[in-house]
Design a protein that fits this description.
This protein has 520 residues and is of the alpha/beta class. It has 18 helices and 14 strands. It has helices spanning 12-17, 42-52, 64-77, 105-114, 116-136, 167-181, 214-221, 223-230, 256-266, 281-299, 310-322, 328-343, 360-371, 405-408, 427-431, 457-468, 481-488, 505-517; strands spanning 20-25, 56-60, 83-86, 141-142, 189-193, 235-238, 272-274, 304-305, 373-375, 386-390, 417-421, 438-444, 472-479, 497-500. The strands form three sheets. The chain has a six-stranded mixed beta sheet with strand order 9-14-13-12-10-11, sandwiched between helices. A five-stranded parallel beta sheet has the order 4-3-2-1-8. Helix 5 runs antiparallel to helix 13 (360-371). The longest helix has 21 residues, at 116-136. The radius of gyration is 23 Å and the shape is globular.
């Protein structure tokens, strides 16, 4: 275990730096950086870790092998062991190719509606596999599970990231996920407190306002957090939402009434409180880097996640302590929690051979199969037809490649023409589509940064045209059960249709097999 210096040996600036987690690309080279506004170049990142002493890094992108090398590199630059985190709510493969990607948590909620015990077993296995694969590539902090209750179908932020729409199901499955993950020395995270499930506003873009009173929050939003705390969750992430009933002025991330008063004191949470990303519009647009960091610490946050300018955030908090606005003891309390947490982690535990023996693939298949919905007749082969795929952004559809089943299987059934439609497709082009039997595959789920959930205008226009001309040979919807239900209620009952929570290749194969074979 790398040495963790006593608190007394750290300067004020070094203490505050331990409270900061920065974002970095999982790729190894600067030319591979995909989000330059958020992911610093190599020299800057090394400077933040080595000279400033920031406490952790959240990684996005690259393969599992690259991420493993990246974790090794980052730990070698740090003077104090790092927290290395990733948003891997759907498995390590969600962010790092080559690892396992599970269907979204809502798939487990669907299974729980039919067989609660089976869903619990799968959620526990999903938590264990996610933690094991994270550890295998050097991550020690799993930013999951989402414990929000997604009771708003128009929610573009949470949506299928949640286990469901009912507090008891979310509580039960979140608990099972945490219990599974706790078999490994990695941290888990319940998010987003005090609840982000009932909003149609995207906090990546602007601040959602939730009008509920405490009685409603205690009945719906808070039980899963209470359950997660009882299950031993290590960290709780704040939500960038404004609840006037709890704090008339400040959003939850910056509210001492919410983070300290309710989460820390009323609910008795003793672990790490981490903000959601401070670069998100809900906070950054109003408060900026410096003031957001100071207010979050005042509110009770132990970790400042992704400030846009980490050195500026550190200096702002230091200045607030030196001016008397924040007490030194407040900083020391957070750093003590961070240090005690790091002391029980392995800073680096690369075990890449784990991927050759993991049972996660079987768990993934079971979740995908048991959560699928099917109706209508079996898909009938045609002599000539169109394979029409609707996606949000054709240039960023990582789930589509030349070997994926969504592209390779339909031609074997006669749907040889290929058409891809996205948000940018003019509606006038849709009117001129070929008049042939069409297999429609819709990839739709909650869409952060797009600002809304649900079907796009091109998707709606395409569906209406195919139905009007009686050309819809079959339908597969991947991702959002809300989109599927909206489409299905307008279809003729005989139209073959399948819904799958998963987007990735194996989920595509299972869904299409189900469609063509008529497997219920």
């Amino acid at each position: 275990m790398t040495f963790i210096p006593p608190l007394a040996d750290l300067s004020l600036r070094a203490q505050v730096a331990q409270m900061v987690v920065v974002r970095a690309s999982g790729y190894l080279y600067d030319r591979q950086i995909q989000y330059p506004a958020w992911e610093p170049p190599q020299n800057t990142l090394k400077h933040w870790l080595k000279d400033w002493g920031v406490g952790g890094v959240i990684l996005v992108g690259g393969s599992a092998v690259e991420a493993a090398e990246r974790c090794r590199q980052l730990q070698s630059w740090a003077t104090i062991p790092l927290l290395l985190a990733a948003d891997i709510e759907e498995g390590v493969g969600q962010r790092f190719s080559g690892a396992t990607q599970f269907p979204p948590p809502a798939a487990l909620g669907a299974i729980a509606q039919k067989n609660r015990e089976r869903a619990v077993d799968l959620a526990r296995a999903m938590g264990a596999s996610t933690a094991a694969e994270a550890l295998a590539i050097g991550l020690n902090w799993v930013l999951a599970p989402v414990v929000d209750v997604n009771n708003n179908p128009a929610n573009p932020v949470i949506n299928v990231r949640a286990f469901g729409e009912e507090p008891d199901i979310v509580s039960t499955l979140a608990t099972a996920f945490i219990q599974g993950a706790r078999a490994y020395p990695v941290l888990t995270t319940a998010k987003h407190f005090p609840g982000h499930g009932d909003t149609a506003t995207d906090s990546h873009l602007e601040l959602p306002v939730i009008p509920h009173d405490r009685d409603r929050l205690q009945a719906i939003e808070w039980p899963p957090f209470v359950a997660a705390i009882a299950a031993g969750v290590d960290t709780v992430m704040s939500a960038h939402v404004h609840l006037p009933a709890l704090d008339a002025e400040r959003p939850a991330t910056l509210s001492s009434q919410i983070l300290t008063g309710i989460l820390r004191q009323e609910m008795g949470f003793n672990g790490l409180i981490v903000t959601d990303a401070l670069v998100m519009g809900a906070i950054a647009n109003t408060y900026g880097t410096a003031e957001a960091a100071v207010k979050a610490v005042e509110a009770g946050a132990d970790i400042l996640l992704m400030p846009l300018d980490p050195p500026a955030a550190i200096e702002a908090v230091v200045a607030a302590v030196e001016s008397g606005r924040i007490s030194p003891e407040r900083i020391q309390a957070s750093v003590n929690r961070i240090q005690s947490t790091k002391a029980r982690l392995q800073p680096l535990a690369l075990q890449l051979d784990y991927f050759q023996t993991t049972p996660a693939v079987e768990v993934t298949t079971a979740i995908a199969q048991e959560s699928m919905e099917r109706a209508g007749q079996a898909l009938q082969p045609v002599t000539s037809g169109v394979n029409c795929l609707i996606v949000d952004d054709a240039l960023d559809a990582s789930f589509l490649n030349r070997t994926c089943p969504a592209l390779t299987l339909p031609p074997t059934w006669g749907f040889r023409q290929r058409l891809v439609i996205d948000q940018q497709t003019p509606l006038t082009m849709i009117e001129g589509l070929p008049s042939e039997p069409t297999l429609l595959q819709v990839f739709s789920r909650g869409n952060p940064f797009r600002g809304k959930a649900g079907l796009s205008a091109p998707a709606i226009a395409t569906l209406e045209r195919l139905q009007t001309q009686n050309q819809l040979a079959g339908l597969v919807v991947y991702g959002s059960p809300y989109a599927y239900r909206k489409i299905a209620q307008h279809l003729h009952p005989d139209v073959p249709r399948v819904f799958s929570y998963g987007h990735y290749s194996s989920a595509q194969g299972l869904a299409l097999e189900c469609l063509v074979q008529g497997i219920a």
